[in-house]
Specification:
Chain lengths: 856, 202
């Protein structure tokens, strides 16, 4: 955090000044470790075992916050009788279907009650048992419970059994963390949690870069719920994300599987009618019972008067998903010549995406590519300066891709909002015009859209109906004809239809077409016709919550689930840690923050059995987005790879899974192609070391915003790989000398940085070395060097299609690189595909895994 | 000034003292400031220096474009050009601080790496050509239209209605504004483009 979010880290340092204990868990010793009280070096890819060990410790020592757990979590809820745990099936849960290569999730459900994942089904489209409004299921709130937590099938007991073998000895064997250090962390964490104190988890998104990434975060959530650290000041789990508006681009997604506000993209499983889509995604209970209002208001915002109740607000015309359409699938298809047109805006996949060689193969096999950026990046110059072009394997004359480069406006040359990592929208004013023909993306997309809508009007074809209907009347300003970003923000906020009066917030949205709203969670950001995101009341003139600086979604609420900061009666668990509370005199919730509960809902209110809609939200509901209002220690639905986190080794590992026969996540997304080879499952002598990637303070992701700046290049001038003195001795590598790192995808060369910051760990009786690789460099810019992403593979977490880049296996040798021909330049991939390594999966898992892409 | 063979005049002595006074080391010693942390090291020249933001007027309020912490920035503009970018001490997030990258954002926006022209590389080409902006926009619109026509699917191979194209794809958004992402998703969805992705998945 000190390295990648230095200014955010000032608050950690301030907490430390006030007596907080800082624990840093990281394979490398960094500037964060230097100021932490405890540094825990850990083998990359083993965090579920580590956190699972802490969960077991908290349960076995009965150190959990019992009143909180009983009040707000699903610990007492009974699970179906046919559920089987990984303890029973050697690393698999019940419901594995070898023919389809995936889980059927029915048996994971609560006894007799049907839950729906918050925000509907984004990855489990209407699978049987996924909770989709099956008529024989009672609402999630009608679950069976055992308040004594003794029932063998209650979540609490299932959790205990699931983690029973995650002992300190096992943690030591898997993670390489000595037992004494484990005990010290466990004791510190428990001492600083529960009623009077809170502990926070901060993670950078490297935690998501695993084939079990989602379950990493789930493990931390379970621990934080058990310790009573969710929804309370100084608690929570804070994702430290890496781009100025990466949160915004998830909320208002340039992502394949969601519409704005986390509404699922329609899939072929949703059928042809809006009613069926709503039925499959709306939860009868909890806040997501409001789902129809959000989708109808979105369709109204997009298609205006053309969207009517009679034509289902044009929902049936929306494009449909049929599977995984992530960037990895797209690029693999592009490399096979199936995707002719590609837009890349403010991103540099030729350097920054996994298997960079395959990314460039994709670009070479597109018909046309449009790149928009500030500087001439590798993705625009793949035909000229890529490693395979420099090596003479590919000639520019043979690359038939048309490439357009449009210069982009910088953040100071346009107005608009970024959403930071804590969900805060901040408006930026414009300081000057962009240089030359540089323009904002707003300008580009608006004027491109204008041209395409004209073509659609001329065509009269049925397929162009949505384009013809699009509301695209944003006013433009100045000689550059820049569209008004405020007008777009006003549409995102929402207004009444057709008179366009701003709505004050999402509670005012309707499902009858009388309101339009571009993103329901952002509704309120333009409340009263005032741009709330531009508020700049100095922090020192406000409370510590600083509610008048910018605007946070939802409803300017700064801490989500903050109802959990008060007990069942609405009184803060602790005066030291008070945040919101029930004011009995005024009969309203109040406090420092905007309370995360219906403002006048009496804490004593309990929903009558079977009631639906907002009336189902009791005064004791701390997690009102959940269909049962509870914090989920156990996830009965919403996940593809299991209701509980389970330690699986990375796809490529140096050791066998010490806990289960099942080596890897059985549901991982694999791309089996010759240009995306994998190593052996474990113990592969060709690749005996662990490789992990990381970022540097002085550079930014794929370097597009940093490798051209001489101030930054002077601070961090050259690509390097970091290894321990022990590994350097073992391989005969000298500090400052050349080294070559290789994986099955390729090899790169870099100077070796030999430091004690990386240390060998003892794992299952053997010494495990780790190689650290920064991934900022590429072939153009002021500072050039090899890209770490040449080494990585396309392999991903099945829930969110995020690649595994933080734990793989590699080799390192002294000297410069004789890279040989790159697998991505060897021509068409032969069929059939190479089979996987059978040691990764139990025999009953089978070899059939749904492939995200099929080659010709 | 002391002159050889004559006693220094009172005026000469005081000038000498004045000169010695202007010697920073002596000033430091006399004022017990051996490390020159006070103003003893200042010279006429340094006293005459002014901050480059002095005539810039009220700063434009902005936000750092690098990571997701969202540090406040004050952008100073002088004669229509950015004179400097500093941390915003009013921000309850950053309290005026910027990290090495944020502090370098002045160079990010003003540096000579910024491209000013639309560039085009034809199939098999070995160099960039410059294109007028409007013409390039027309060319891109034509290519989007043609590719969409060529790759449109009303139904998937199994007969299900899909109304889309898998021939077009987009990557990028985490460095863009919410308003930009909103229009991108809106336009792509209306076009039937589903392969829309950004760094949030990377």
């Amino acid at each position: 955090m000190a390295e990648n979010h230095p200014v955010g880290f000032q608050w950690v340092m301030e907490a430390r000044e006030r007596g907080a204990t800082i624990i840093h868990v990281d394979p490398r010793f960094t500037r964060t470790s230097a100021v932490a009280d405890i540094h825990v070096p850990i083998r990359p890819g083993t965090d579920i075992a580590w956190l699972g060990g802490l969960i077991r410790h908290v349960l076995e020592e009965e150190a959990y916050f019992k009143e909180y757990v009983l009040a707000f979590t699903n610990a007492p809820v009974i699970v179906r009788e046919d559920f089987r745990d990984t303890e029973d099936l050697d690393g698999l849960f019940s419901g594995w279907n070898a023919q389809e290569g995936k889980y059927h999730v029915d048996s994971w459900q609560y006894e007799g009650a049907g839950t729906i994942p918050a925000a509907g089904h984004k990855h489990l489209p209407a699978d049987a048992g996924a909770g989709a409004d099956a008529p024989d299921k009672r609402p999630a709130t009608l679950q069976e419970r055992d308040e004594t937590l003794r029932h063998p099938r209650c979540v609490f007991q299932i959790l205990r059994r699931h983690f029973s073998r995650y002992t300190p000895e096992m943690v030591e064997q898997i993670c390489g963390v000595p037992r004494a250090l484990f005990a010290k962390v466990a004791e510190t964490l428990i001492r600083n949690s529960r009623r009077e104190r809170t502990a926070a988890f901060c993670y950078a998104v490297g935690w998501t870069h695993h084939s079990v990434g989602v379950q990493y975060i789930r493990t931390a959530s379970i621990l934080q719920l058990l310790l009573g650290n969710m929804g309370r000041p100084g608690g929570g789990i804070i994702a430290l994300r890496g781009h100025a508006s990466i949160q915004g681009s998830t909320d208002i997604p340039t992502l394949f599987n969601i519409l704005p506000g986390y509404l699922p993209m329609p899939t072929t499983k949703h059928g042809g009618t809006l009613a069926k889509y709503i039925q499959g995604n709306r939860s009868p209970t909890g806040w997501w019972s409001e789902f129809p209002k959000y989708i109808v208001s979105l369709l109204r915002a997009w298609f205006g008067d053309a969207a009517t109740k009679e034509n289902d607000y044009l929902w049936g015309e929306l494009p449909r998903l049929t599977g995984d359409h992530s960037h990895m699938t797209t690029v693999a298809d592009m490399a096979d010549g199936k995707v002719p047109g590609y837009f890349v805006m403010g991103e540099n996949p030729a350097v920054g995406s996994p298997n960079a060689g395959l990314q460039r193969k994709g670009l070479r096999n597109a018909k046309w590519v449009v790149v928009r950026d500030l500087a001439m990046i590798e993705t625009a110059e793949f035909w000229k300066s890529a490693p395979e072009v420099q090596a003479g394997e590919v000639r520019p004359e043979d690359i038939q891709t048309e490439v357009f480069f449009f210069p982009a406006a910088a953040h100071t040359e346009k107005e608009g909002t970024f959403t930071n990592t804590q969900r805060l929208l901040q408006w930026r004013e414009k300081a000057e015009e962009p240089p030359g023909n540089a323009r904002s993306e707003l300008h580009f997309v608006f004027h491109l859209g204008r041209r395409l809508i004209e073509k659609a009007r001329a065509s009269g074809k049925e397929r162009d109906l949505l384009l013809r209907s699009l509301v695209w009347d944003y006013p433009t300003q100045g000689k550059l004809q820049e569209p008004s970003a405020e007008a777009v923000l006003a549409e995102i906020n929402g207004y009444t239809w057709p008179d366009r009066n701003p709505v004050p917030g999402y509670a005012e949205l309707k499902d009858d077409g009388s309101t339009a709203c571009g993103c329901w969670i952002y509704s309120g950001c333009f409340s009263g016709g005032v741009n709330q995101t531009a508020r700049r009341k100095p922090g020192r003139e406000q409370s510590w919550v600083a509610p008048e600086w910018g605007w946070a979604w939802p409803a300017n609420r700064r801490v989500l689930y903050n109802r959990a900061s008060a007990d069942l009666e609405g009184k803060p668990w602790s005066e030291r840690k008070r945040l919101v509370w029930w004011d009995a005199a005024k009969r309203r919730w109040t406090g420092e923050d905007v309370p995360d509960i219906i403002a006048d809902r009496d804490p004593a209110y309990r929903a009558p059995p079977g009631v639906e809609g907002l009336a189902s939200i009791g005064g004791n509901t701390a997690f009102l987005m959940q269909s049962d209002g509870l914090g989920w220690l156990y996830a009965p639905t919403g996940l593809i790879d299991g209701p509980l986190p389970t330690h699986y080794e990375p796809l490529e590992s140096v050791v066998k899974n010490a806990l289960y026969g099942q080596q890897c996540n059985p549901t991982r997304l694999e791309y089996r192609r010759r240009d995306n080879r994998y190593h052996g499952a474990y113990d592969d002598p060709a690749y005996p070391f662990v490789l992990t990637t990381f970022r540097l303070t002085e550079h930014h992701t794929a370097g597009g915003m940093s490798r051209w700046l001489w101030w930054l290049c002077e601070l961090q001038p050259e690509m390097f790989v970091e290894i321990s003195p022990e590994l350097a001795r073992l391989r005969g590598i000298t500090h400052g000398g050349w080294a070559t790192v290789s994986t099955a995808r390729g090899a790169i060369e870099a100077r070796a940085l030999v430091t004690a910051r990386l240390r060998p760990l003892q794992i299952q009786g053997k010494t495990v070395h780790t190689i650290g690789v920064p991934w900022h460099w590429g072939t153009v810019g002021r500072s050039t060097g090899a890209s770490g992403n040449e080494l990585l593979a396309l392999v991903a977490d099945p829930n969110v299609s995020i690649m595994e880049s933080k734990a793989l296996t590699a080799h390192i040798l002294p000297g410069r690189c004789d890279r040989g021909r790159h697998p991505s330049t060897l021509g068409p991939t032969p069929s059939p595909l190479e089979p996987g390594d059978p040691r990764r999966d139990l025999p009953q898992v089978g070899t059939k895994r749904p492939m995200p892409t099929q080659e010709p | 000034m002391p002159v050889r063979g004559r006693l220094p005049t009172i005026a000469g002595v005081s000038t000498l003292i004045g000169r010695l006074e202007s010697w920073p080391l002596l000033r430091q010693l006399r004022r017990s400031d051996p490390c020159a942390v006070g103003d003893t090291a200042a010279t006429e020249r340094t006293r005459g220096l002014r901050a480059r933001i002095r005539d810039a007027g009220k700063p434009v309020r902005s936000v750092c474009p690098y990571c997701a912490v969202g540090c406040g920035q004050k952008v100073y503009v002088k004669e229509g050009k950015i004179a400097d970018i500093e941390g915003d001490e009013d921000s309850p997030i950053s309290r005026g601080r910027l990290c090495p990258k944020g502090a370098a954002s002045f160079q990010l926006v003003t540096g000579d790496h910024r491209i000013r022209d639309v560039l085009y590389r034809p199939p098999g080409g070995t160099q960039w050509d410059v294109l007028p902006l409007e013409k390039a926009m027309d060319m891109v619109a034509d290519r989007v239209w043609r590719t969409r026509e060529e790759t449109w699917e009303d139904t998937a191979p199994n007969g299900e209605r899909v109304k889309r194209t898998l021939g077009l794809a987009h990557l990028g958004g985490a460095t863009l504004d919410n308003e930009e992402n909103y229009l991108l998703k809106k336009l792509y969805t209306a076009l039937g483009v589903v392969q829309v992705e950004n760094q949030a998945r990377i």
